[in-house]
């Protein structure tokens, strides 16, 4: 099984940062601002106000956002379906850090640790290292015995596991991630009616006018509309 395929199997089982992310990603600020609330239906006024309040805050510094961007891309490199930038993963992590305060210290302390570790080993911060040096550090904290208690593992291992989980969540719950998974969801099926041999067996046939009107596959994606008297228009 390829590495990305194994990650897919695991996946199956902000305004505050918008100014920086706009210049870094080349994505319109409005898209970044509302990236997590583009679907407003089902939200109560209180929930919308809560989200807007979080978007109005900023937690990570610009340097921390750049480091997260590099980490997420190393965890899940771009492919033909999309990238962590297309999926707005860093925006999600920024939002989650504000939404779940218990994430804040582990995430920030981990970013401090990886920069210090990079300086100790290679005399440079993490994002300025060559990729082989970056992976050398990550390889030491990315793999652990699943039988071990996660809370008993070193803090860098726990931190990387959190970042990896957020990366997977952000990507595989996005439009590009769902496309990569091949998930189709509840889509219109193609049905041409009762097979002709069954109709013949019972001496039945469709009314041709209704057949042409109700079983037209070219219009199966059209949303039905009725007039005020309940007559079907489309």
Characterise the protein shown here:
This protein is mostly helical. The protein has 2 domains: 3-181, no CATH class; 188-234, no CATH class. The chain is 56% helix and 0% strand. The chain has 12 helices and no strands. α6 packs across α9 (155-172), α7 packs across α9 and α8 (131-142) crosses α9 (155-172). The protein is elongated, with a radius of gyration of 25 Å. The two termini are 47 Å apart. Mean pLDDT is 80; it is low at 6-34.
Q: How much is the radius of gyration in Å?
A: 25 Å
Secondary-structure element order, N to C: HHHHHHHHHHHH
The number of domains is: 2
Mean pLDDT: 80
What percent of the residues sit in helical stretches (DSSP H or I)? Answer: 55-70%
Which overall shape is indicated by the principal axes computed on the Cα atoms? elongated
- Tally of helical runs: 12
Major beta-sheet overview: none
The unreliable regions are 6-34
**N-to-C terminal Cα separation, in Å?**
47 Å
Task: Decide which structural class fits the backbone.
Answer: mainly alpha
Query: What is the number of E strands?
Result: 0
- The amount of beta strand, in percent, is under 5%
Summarize the structure.
This protein has 12 helices and no strands.
Primary descriptors:
single chain, 234 residues, 12 helices, 56% helix, mainly alpha
